[in-house]
Amino acid sequence: MLIAISDPDDPRIEAYRALRERDLLGRQHRFIAEGEVVLRVLLRQQPRFEAESLLLGEGRVESLDDALHLLPPEVPVYVANRQVMDAIVGFPIHRGILAVAKRPALPPVDVLLDSLPETALVVGMAGLANHDNVGGIFRNAAAFGANAVLLDRETCDPLYRKAIRVSVGGALVVPFTRAPSADALVQALEEASFEVIALSPSGAETLSRVQPSRRTALLLGAEGPGLPPGLLARTRTVSIPMSGGFDSLNVATTSGIALHHLTQGQ
Amino acid sequence: MLIAISDPDDPRIEAYRALRERDLLGRQHRFIAEGEVVLRVLLRQQPRFEAESLLLGEGRVESLDDALHLLPPEVPVYVANRQVMDAIVGFPIHRGILAVAKRPALPPVDVLLDSLPETALVVGMAGLANHDNVGGIFRNAAAFGANAVLLDRETCDPLYRKAIRVSVGGALVVPFTRAPSADALVQALEEASFEVIALSPSGAETLSRVQPSRRTALLLGAEGPGLPPGLLARTRTVSIPMSGGFDSLNVATTSGIALHHLTQGQ
């Protein structure tokens, strides 16, 4: 349902107003998807992530024509020219493609884990407060077909606009949920018969020698502080050997290396 | 040599003025190092990357005390309070740590390759125009002990402020130089007896089955366009298999996965 918008103050596009300021406040019940790649993933994920509306630049409708049919016909697609669109969101929105979607309720951790196949690979994140890293890890989890992602309470929101963008939509592909704490996250994995592999520079084993179990979970902590000692004590700890004097990998890159290693034999 | 600066217009700190605007112009003979991690790498790399001066926030001198002795005593270390420092650089510089260093002349590609040991691993980049990706690849090249990095003319500057920062100093660790073109880059590698492995989603072999040669070069192209067909035709092409429908890895992550695989047997 295409609807032309010519007034930036039109109440129908309220959800797109002052985008950055609202990013900072956080959105409890909705999230924003931005750019063509992410929008196409969102459209393929209907109705899991229910789109409420789209806001497109005038030139964008045609190039998305092949994907817009995935949208239920009652969902409004607002169309505005560049100037009106910039005035609505509050900054130059070069990509000219935005959508607002409903944030689904997150299932309890044990329910999500119980829904996974017998052979499964899960990624766990503890204390990851950087949206680029969380987005990058979701991109890798999607690329290597991880079955689910678990987050502790300190890990930031994968449905934050920038995290979705960095994940190139991976945050909309891999099922995820949140545990009340990193300890609860590991406990739920153990109870669901996952072997938890914690990546740490002080890990006891070398990644390249690790064979995945039937159910394997990869646990990642923040660059710098890393995973808390209590978690390392109860898990199988694994390191990636590096060249002398430069012991530093980005945590998203680390997840890609580990996921590649754990899936390459399959 | 500590020198207090109280006037943002002091001519001695000219090189730090309007940092962002000068970033955009590019610096022909100098580069800027920023933040504690990068500065510490720079200080360890004296005299290869000759520091001309430092500009530190007042609180920073003490925390760097153990590293500043690596600096030749005649190099000025300017010290300013937060307000003066922000006024000099033109924006709030939270890290409070800057240095200006001389950009060394780049050796011809064949000279650099001839200087490498008999067993060597080189990373080649063709058409990589994103500073985050170039920085991320240098970080991985340093982490996995690559012997050198080669860039074609289209690949962006690894000594750009942001690229060095993303590399966490790796751009100052791994020797690099530029070839006149991607073809010349590959030709120089072939003449120096390197087997060139080109990573491409259309690669004929699977990465996990590749055994490194005595001299191996890993060739990376930009996300999206990838490597030109002419280069793929003359190299050994390798892909990283991914999960159906989500065939997308960041190029820096790709470099980490490939470097890990190629070095893990050593």
TrEMBL record, chains A, B:
Keywords: Methyltransferase, Transferase
One GO BP: methylation
Alphabetical list of InterPro entries matching this protein: Alpha/beta_knot_MTases (IPR029028), Ribosomal_eL30-like_sf (IPR029064), rRNA_Methyltransferase (IPR051259), SpoU_MeTrfase (IPR001537), SpoU_subst-bd (IPR013123), tRNA_m1G_MTases_N (IPR029026)
Keyword Methyltransferase appears in the UniProt entry: yes
SMART domains: SpoU_sub_bind (SM00967)
Domain RNA 2-O ribose methyltransferase substrate binding: 32-107
GO molecular function: methyltransferase activity
Protein name per the record: TrmH family RNA methyltransferase
